[in-house]
Write a structure and sequence with these properties.
The complex is a heterodimer.
Chain A lengths: L1 H12 L10 H7 L3 H31 L6 H23 L1 H7 L3 H5 L2 H12 L4 H29 L11 H15 L8
Helix pairs in contact in A: 1-8, 3-4, 3-7, 3-8, 4-5, 4-7, 7-8
Chain B lengths: L6 H6 L15 H6 L4 H24 L9 H23 L1 H7 L1 H4 L5 H11 L4 H31 L1 E2 L2 E2 L14 H18 L16 H4 L2 H7 L1
Antiparallel strand pairs in B: 1-2
Helix pairs in contact in B: 3-4, 3-7, 3-8, 4-5, 4-7, 7-8
Classes of the chains: A mainly alpha, B mainly alpha.
């Protein structure tokens, strides 16, 4: 039951983009088209889940030596290394998949949602399986927000927007309205 | 960069004309997340400024030592080191602010402003100029955060730095301190800047300031524009 709660909580109640403000750069940058949103979302789910799986044992190691304050340095290095590694392996082993996801991978290193999830897992003292569920849920939440928003943006392309609002301001205002709709889920879980 | 060369120009460009948040459209995540109160905005801004100045100094003095191929991981480690320092300092001296900023303090590591300045400025310029550039950009970021935080606190709670404002405090519009309000206020501020800016600021999140640009070489853009 608690797994389902974590999942629903991540995707709807505390949506990583719309209510926790993580990964905004990618959210605003890549949400122009539905196709690229799917690619980015898939890449984020994959990297996030793997990052959570790798950082969990690493944190236990840091704990054993009493150097937990090094977690930020250790985690970002692991994520950066992992992303590079995946890119190289994917290029060699699965060229079609690399063609689909490859360009989004480098962007993920500096996506704060990935580092944010690994740190949140520790702050919330999740077990290994709960960490994984949390990571998958956050990835799904990111994809959902991206997909929904690319739909909104493709409609906005054809509307007549006042000059100072063109581009990012209009996008942010639209994001405010989408975020407002997600506020409806507040209170669903404690 | 219109004032290139002059020391004063390096410092002031980050404040207004190249303000990283409102003109450069960088570092959106902390801008939106921690600005529910003016106080938190300033705290976050100054913490980022500290990391930015220190990392700019270290990176510009090591620019000949760091091999070009692995420069990004090196920059990230240097930045993460300083983030750990500020985490310790804040936990020790300002525990209240430390709790308020939460995970976003650790996330300064992946703030695009810092990596972007390291890549675009500190790795090409001298130590002194880089320090000034970092200070200017950091204070510009702080200014933007303070503005956002003040607006949201005044409209959303009817107070400013905890002081109650008559009339407004009887009718707080709570939506402004909620996530939706953050998006809205930032959108309005950028629209205002666009309106008054003499030269056109970037209308889209561009590759110019993106720290990943070196690796992705604009591929993500092309892919999206296909």
């Amino acid at each position: 039951m608690s797994y389902i709660l974590i999942l629903v909580g991540c995707v709807f109640v505390n949506n990583v983009v719309l209510s926790q403000f993580m990964g905004i750069c990618a959210f605003l940058g890549v949400s122009k088209q539905i196709k690229s949103s799917v690619g980015m979302g898939a890449a984020v789910i994959f990297v996030m889940t793997c990052a959570a799986a790798i950082t969990y044992p690493v944190y236990m190691l840091l704990e054993k030596f009493g150097i937990t304050y090094l977690r930020t340095v250790a985690f970002i290095l692991i994520i950066a290394m992992f992303v590079q590694f995946v890119e190289i392996v994917m290029k060699k082993v699965m060229p079609p998949l690399h063609k689909a996801l490859g360009v989004y991978l480098p962007l993920i290193t500096t996506n704060c949602a990935v580092l944010g999830v690994t740190i949140a897992n520790i702050d919330k003292e999740y077990s290994f399986s709960k960490s994984i569920v949390n990571a998958v849920g956050t990835g799904l939440a990111f994809t959902l927000a991206l997909l929904m928003f690319s739909g909104v943006r493709s409609t906005m392309e054809h509307s007549d927007i006042p000059a100072p609002f063109k581009g990012v301001p209009a996008t942010l205002t639209a994001a405010a309205i989408v975020s407002l709709s997600f506020m409806g889920f507040t209170g669903m879980i404690d | 960069m219109e004032n290139k060369g002059s020391v004063w120009g390096e410092f002031t460009k980050g404040l207004i004309s190249q303000n990283p948040t409102l003109v450069g459209l960088l570092g959106m995540c902390p801008t939106l997340a921690v600005t529910t109160l003016a106080k938190n905005g300033i705290g976050m801004g100054l913490a980022t400024t500290f990391v930015l100045v220190c990392s700019n100094i270290v990176i510009s003095s090591l620019k000949k030592v760091i091999p070009k191929a692995v420069r990004l991981p090196c920059f990230i480690v240097i930045i993460a080191g300083f983030v750990t320092v500020i985490e310790f300092l804040m936990k020790g001296f300002l525990p209240e602010l430390y709790d308020a900023l939460g995970v976003f303090l650790s996330l300064i590591t992946v703030n695009c402003i810092i990596l972007g300045r390291a890549e675009a400025f500190a790795s090409k310029n001298g130590v002194f100029a880089s320090a000034l550039d970092g200070l200017g950009m950091g204070l510009g970021f702080t200014l933007a955060l303070f503005l956002m935080g003040s607006l949201r606190e005044i409209i959303g709670t009817g107070s400013w730095f905890g002081m109650k404002i008559p009339v407004l405090c009887d009718h707080p519009m709570t939506v402004f301190i909620m996530p939706a309000g953050g998006f809205f206020v930032l959108g309005m501020l950028i629209a205002l800047v666009n309106m008054f800016a003499g030269k056109k600021p970037p209308k889209e999140i561009s590759c110019e300031g993106c720290p990943s640009a070196a690796i992705c070489k604009g591929q993500c853009r092309e892919e999206a524009d296909e």
